[in-house]
Amino acid sequence: MNDIKLGQYVHGYSLIHLLDPRTKIICCTFIVISILSNHNFWYLLAYLGLILAAIKYSGIPYKSIWRSMRGIRYLLLITFLFQAVLTPGEGLIQLGALSVTREGLSIGLINLLRLVILFLGSILLLMTTTPMKLSAGLEYLLLPLNKIKIPVQHFTTIISISFRFIPTLVEESIIIKDAQRSRGASFDSPKIFSNIKSYLAILIPLLASSMLRAEELAEAMDSRCYGGNPNQYRMQSLKYRRVDIYLIIFMTMVLFMGLFLG
Amino acid sequence: MSGRAENMIQLIDVSKEYKMADSCRVALQHINLTISEGEYIGILGLNQSGKSTLARLLNGLLKPTTGQVLINGMATDSPQEIRQIRQLLGMVFQNPDNQLICPVVEEEIAFGPENLGLPPEEVNKRVDWALELVGMQEMRYHAPHLLSGGQKQKVALASVLAMQPRYLVLDEPTSMLDPLSRREILEHLCRINQENHITIILISHHPEDLLDAKRLILLHEGSIYMQGTPKEVFKDMEKLKAIGLKRPGLYQLIQQVEEEGYRIDDNIKTIPQLVEMICRI
Amino acid sequence: MSNIIDIKDLSYVYLPGTPYEQQALKDINMVLNQGELLGLFGGNGSGKSTLAKLLNGLLYPSRGKVRVCGIDTSIKELRNELWKKVGLVFQYPEQQIFEANIYDEVAYGPRNLGLKEAEVKSRVYQALEKVGLLPETLVNLSPVKLSGGVRRRIAIAGVLALEPEILILDEPMAGLDPLGQELMLDIIKKRQEMGTQSTIIISHNLKDIIALADKIAILEKGSLLFYGEVAELLENIDILSRFHLELPDYLQVVYALKARGKRTNRDISNLDEAGLELIQIISSQKGN
Hints:
The structure holds three protein chains of three kinds.
Chain A: H1 15-18, H2 21-36, H3 41-58, H4 62-70, H5 73-86, E1 91-95, E2 98-101, H6 102-128, H7 131-142, H8 152-181, H9 192-223, H10 232-235, H11 242-261
Antiparallel strand pairs in A: 1-2
Helix pairs in contact in A: 2-6, 2-7, 2-11, 3-6, 5-6, 7-8, 8-9
Chain B: E1 8-19, E2 24-36, E3 40-44, H1 51-58, E4 66-71, E5 74-75, H2 82-88, E6 89-92, H3 105-115, H4 120-133, H5 149-161, E7 167-171, H6 179-195, E8 199-204, E9 215-220, E10 223-228, H7 230-235, H8 237-242, H9 249-259, H10 271-280
Parallel strand pairs in B: 3-8, 3-9, 6-7, 7-8
Antiparallel strand pairs in B: 1-2, 1-4, 4-5, 9-10
Chain C: E1 3-14, E2 22-33, E3 37-42, H1 48-55, E4 63-68, E5 71-72, H2 79-85, E6 86-89, H3 102-112, H4 117-130, H5 135-138, H6 148-160, E7 166-170, H7 178-193, E8 198-203, H8 206-212, E9 215-220, E10 223-229, H9 230-235, H10 237-243, H11 249-259, H12 271-287
Parallel strand pairs in C: 3-8, 3-9, 6-7, 7-8
Antiparallel strand pairs in C: 1-2, 1-4, 4-5, 9-10
């Protein structure tokens, strides 16, 4: 009943939506590697263009992306300012005891770009991939870790249970908040202490019900013989098409280009 | 081996105690009970009567303190046999929200069969079958949190049925549902019992839920207080009243009429049916 | 002022202007007198919980007016005033308990009102008594270890301690065993006997409501299907035929007889009389 939340899946039939989740996860990994291993401003700018084009192509309105960007605007600003001010080098502008340096500006800008690219990339992944496909893709890609005795299935089960219960938890917290509000709890009082108390009045019941839920879930899983088998049924939904392969080849090229430029 | 009975559940002198910091609570004492395959059993009791403990003993979520619980001859406290027991005996719980594990309905139903290690084609077949059985085909790709309470409970039912159990234990499956969903679930149980020959063990604190049972077991303070057909159990009003239970209005009417010397058919399950029958005498 | 609730042409739309837009309530008109008990009945998604939130200002009307105790609920500044007058107990309120002992839990609301501790104390004790708990032995206990039924009564006491003129209970019986339901009925009846306090019970169980309510409102898909006194409802064949399986047992008999064209010879107001009527019918048929 609430607004569309940050990174929530939005149904669609664009090429990006129809890509195999493994492709999208691999591409995101490539993005992380390329932008972290590269300092070239123009390369990063080109990368940003690439992602913006992909977003345009996916049919997700820029407006909703922009709104979610606003959520991290302070983080971005602080990163930029710190870098700009704290990097030693040729001073450009003097701000009291601090001086903004040329080197600081350029490093700040590069890191800002990196953060924005990372953020947009992951938002795009989440908004165009259903939770089920996402966890199927993850499970498939992580499966080799089983060989070195890392229980991948338990890990992906945890992820999929989180996907299942986040909406329920949100609903529940809204109900509890309403209930405490109608007992006079205020969440925007000028007194900090009473705000903290009001939030505790939500968090404590939420925690209690989550513990109970965990217990009951464990029973339900046990009674259905959960043992951590690979989820073949889920992975059935995975299918590579030609476009997936093209995209991976393309992204590999972009990655190597970045490595050489860097 | 003698005494190893196939095709039935046996509780042999079962007691269950919960140890607490400074005390000990007896949840069940000296229960002896046999349930044959294909039966429809109702277990009635108020809170703290031990009925949830009984349910959890049946599929080994709890182990008896003394005595033995045997499912088709397999003891629930044997670690080697627990998997097979849980495959034979499925459980549906009270809270529809806290027993759905997966983010999509079809995965939820596939969860059990997957854990049994069945091949994907077989899993697929069972998902289709179970969804159809509870009439939820259209919800296949929905997320559980978008369903109503009644729909969630039907998904929970389907997800257990997909494991193709012989016995189905339901611990207050309707207590959080509206009357319409409640009736739907009860109808499904009746059908599953009659057409698929799956044993139903339905636990409830509402006498009205248990009118379809062939045998009614009334638990009180951890012991079997009364046992018989619903008609027999609900006849003894005084005994019910003594433990704070009211009998369903239907059975009061039936008794009132029968005391005048008219015999009422055992198949009458609702008041409209009773009135219709009387008008036809 | 006898109209404690006055709803005029009320409509409510969720998330207007988005693809998720949804009309939750449509053109509701309703008046409730002081001291009356209103039963609000409806299925999933009928809008009954939305209506409750509109009554205590958690939501504002999209169109139309809601006046409660003379207060226009759409005025933001009066919301605090409104919360003192309208107590809302949500579904499964025992899940909203958060304090470490019962006293503090029940005192949470009164303290938020800014009352003096002596007044808070007397309200806590009175509220616990109203829900059938003995305050002296209880107040220092932790609510965690108590049974669900007792926890629910504590949660209700937490709202009663605000001494609301209107108490709204959302599914107060849900999930309780017959004994717990009996106790809940007692609490509601006691409040009703005071004669001046109004109560609204929201439920998907018509049986519970008919036994208690003065007036009944039936919501369906956001529209008011019926609003009136219980006696009027029992005359309304169209509605009864839809919900006849959800009537109290004796009324099911009455309705089933009516539906078969049988005229009842007596005034049936309980199950015994319904049984006598059935016996009468049998003997008269045998006589023919």
